[in-house]
TrEMBL record:
InterPro entries: Peptidase_S1_PA (IPR009003), Peptidase_S1_PA_chymotrypsin (IPR043504), Trypsin_dom (IPR001254). GO terms for molecular function: serine-type endopeptidase activity. GO terms for biological process: proteolysis. This is Chymotrypsin B. It comes from the Eukaryota. Pfam families: Trypsin. Keywords: Disulfide bond. The lineage of its organism: Eukaryota, Metazoa, Ecdysozoa, Arthropoda, Chelicerata.
Amino acid sequence: STILKTRIVLGAHDSEFSPEPVHISKITVHPQFDYEIRSNDIALLKLQVPAKLQQNVNLLCLPTSRDIAHPNQMAVVAGWGNHTDPCK
């Protein structure tokens, strides 16, 4: 299974950082993700073990009910990783 082979690295943005890869147990892709135009290109990853908090790895505060976006409101997030599908 692909999920068993998938590992992530937390807090790595420095080429001198030697992190330990973390295995994930579940991937939840946005239900309206469109591969062709990359809209709704976001997913939740459940780690097999809790993340170790450190300088480059910390908790994210979830929004309150006042902060939640309205339906069809545009939102932008930043991230990086693979930009190609290694299976193709």
